[in-house]
């Protein structure tokens, strides 16, 4: 089925004319690229992509439809989708709907038949930027002018994706975990449940007193979208959580918030890390792991307070990928050990966390 003509305009002024393959309309977001070859249903439903337009660098998406039982949340969180070629079939035994149906159902605008390699080069050259996709307005100058009205620098995206009420998972489990939800993926919950944890998921703004009243054996600080400095209301809570000296697991945004809360600084990467092929070096073992990642910000190693050490580095740009503490029971990584999608090389991170309870 041929889609309506669509246009993508970048903040640099460059434009790309293609064809719509999702919901018809107009959307503005921060444009980023993902280098994964598979796993688009999980990528689209990852809450960490809130407010972003995803460019898939792999040239074909949609060819195995959408398995709604393997999603990372209940809906699509990104603002828009860009692809070289979209396939409307669903060649998978467990596919419940096509990608087109999934995008339309979630009111997500998509554009394909554009030069995604050129778009990725543009992002790599100039950095992450604002972009707009439209199936309505075709005037590049009008669309470029609309971009000027938007400023994403101070958005608290966590409030968009966190749960609004606490809920419990596996209430008959053993050790009690309090999970602060900054945009948690289902994959993280699935991995934790393998260790029979009893998990209570709390909204991001939950007070320390409410968390402490649950009397958890451990605390998890989840992944999530955006700039960690835009959620200052969690910093005092995290400082007091760390003072309890109970086992803490921080993943992606979680590790950044731990660092900020204890006095370190974070900074924005030029174009972020997004995909399932990022090499990470483990200092303690000397081994290299291929990891799944999705973040725009990194910890400034020079600002880490006394007692912290970097135990994982990214081999592409030497950014911080994991930290540990001299005596606090902490497991904190920038990458996604649950993958979803991606390699399972670092699922042992959950085992390391579990051993902290011994």
Automatic annotation (TrEMBL):
Per the UniProt record, the source organism is Dictyoglomus turgidum (strain DSM 6724 / Z-1310)
Reactions that this protein is recorded to catalyse: hydrogencarbonate + L-glutamine + 2 ATP + H2O = carbamoyl phosphate + L-glutamate + 2 ADP + phosphate + 2 H(+); L-glutamine + H2O = L-glutamate + NH4(+)
Task: Provide the gene name from the record.
Answer: carA
Q: Which residues form the active site?
A: 252, 336, 338
Q: Where does L-glutamine bind?
A: 48, 224, 226, 253, 256, 294, 297
Give the family per the record: Belongs to the CarA family.
Report the protein's function: Small subunit of the glutamine-dependent carbamoyl phosphate synthetase (CPSase). CPSase catalyzes the formation of carbamoyl phosphate from the ammonia moiety of glutamine, carbonate, and phosphate donated by ATP, constituting the first step of 2 biosynthetic pathways, one leading to arginine and/or urea and the other to pyrimidine nucleotides. The small subunit (glutamine amidotransferase) binds and cleaves glutamine to supply the large subunit with the substrate ammonia.
Which EC number(s) does UniProt give? 6.3.5.5
Query: Among its keywords, does the record have ATP-binding?
Result: yes
Known pathway: Amino-acid biosynthesis; L-arginine biosynthesis; carbamoyl phosphate from bicarbonate: step 1/1; Pyrimidine metabolism; UMP biosynthesis via de novo pathway; (S)-dihydroorotate from bicarbonate: step 1/3
Q: What is this protein called?
A: Carbamoyl phosphate synthase small chain
Q: Where is the Carbamoyl-phosphate synthase small subunit N-terminal domain?
A: 4-134
- Fetch the CDD domains from UniProt: GATase1_CPSase (cd01744)
- Provide the assembly information: Composed of two chains; the small (or glutamine) chain promotes the hydrolysis of glutamine to ammonia, which is used by the large (or ammonia) chain to synthesize carbamoyl phosphate. Tetramer of heterodimers (alpha,beta)4.
Q: Which residues form a coiled coil?
A: none
Q: Which GO terms describe its cellular component?
A: carbamoyl-phosphate synthase complex; cytoplasm
Report the Gene3D superfamilies cross-referenced here: 3.40.50.880, Carbamoyl-phosphate synthase small subunit, N-terminal domain
List, alphabetically, the InterPro entries matched.
Anth_synth/Amidotransfase, CarbamoylP_synth_ssu, CarbamoylP_synth_ssu_N, CarbP_synth_ssu_N_sf, Class_I_gatase-like, CPSase_GATase1, GATASE
Keyword field contains Transmembrane: no
GO biological process, any: L-arginine biosynthetic process
Spell out the Pfam families in the cross-references.
Answer: CPSase_sm_chain, GATase
User: Sorted alphabetically, which keywords does the UniProt record give?
Assistant: Amino-acid biosynthesis, Arginine biosynthesis, ATP-binding, Glutamine amidotransferase, Ligase, Nucleotide-binding, Pyrimidine biosynthesis
Where in this protein does the record put region CPSase? 1-175
GO MF terms held by the record: ATP binding; carbamoyl-phosphate synthase (glutamine-hydrolyzing) activity; glutaminase activity
